[in-house]
Amino acid sequence: MGMPVIVYQVVRFLLPGLKKGERWWLFLGIPFASILFASGVGFTWFVMIPTAVPFLATFLDITTQVRPQNYFEFITKLMAWIGLSFEMPLIAFLLAKLKIVTGKQLVQGWRYAFVGISVLAAVITPTVDPVNMGLVMLPLCGLYIFSIFLAWIGGRN
């Protein structure tokens, strides 16, 4: 809930030190980052939670009684981590703008990236089944491909 105030303060801090072209990228990046985070949260709410919670509630045929505090903490953390992982294309774009990576490097390292994405999906996913891990992994792999495109755009002069 405090994110708009935090973003406002960070932007106010950065603006005096930026050139006009850099300001344009900053103002373009803020809505893009918000859209990516919101899509990650939406993905969590509409796809992950309806799949993960029933599985966790009946794991090994043991019926559990979930406490509201634990449930809300679980849902909040899951939404935050998946929302942050959906920021990958923006991070790739910024790294390409700073000439740290190129689109060609991302294409060449796709195998390593997909292994890293699968490890990240295993850490983020609250369950032990491959279905939920695949649900997280599939959009992250798609976002990696989109990151390659954005890195190519960001790396151009």
Can I get a quick summary?
The chain has 157 residues and is mainly alpha-helical.
Q: How would you describe this protein?
A:
- With 157 residues, the protein is mostly helical.
- It is 80% helix and 0% strand.
- The protein has helices at residues 3-14, 20-57, 68-85, 88-97, 103-108, 110-124, 130-155.
- α4 packs parallel to α7 (130-155).
- It is flat.
- The protein starts with a helix and ends with a helix.
- The model has no long low-confidence stretch (mean pLDDT 86).
> What number is the mean pLDDT?
86
Straight-line N-to-C gap: 37 Å
Query: Which structural class fits the helix and strand makeup?
Result: mainly alpha
Radius of gyration: 18 Å
- Percentage beta strand: under 5%
DSSP helix fraction? over 70%
The tally of structural domains comes to 1
What kind of sheet is the major sheet? none
SSE string, helices as H and strands as E: HHHHHHH
Overall spatial form = flat
Q: Low-confidence spans: pLDDT under 50, at least 5 residues?
A: none
The number of strands is 0
- What is the number of helical segments per DSSP (H or I, 4+ residues)? 7
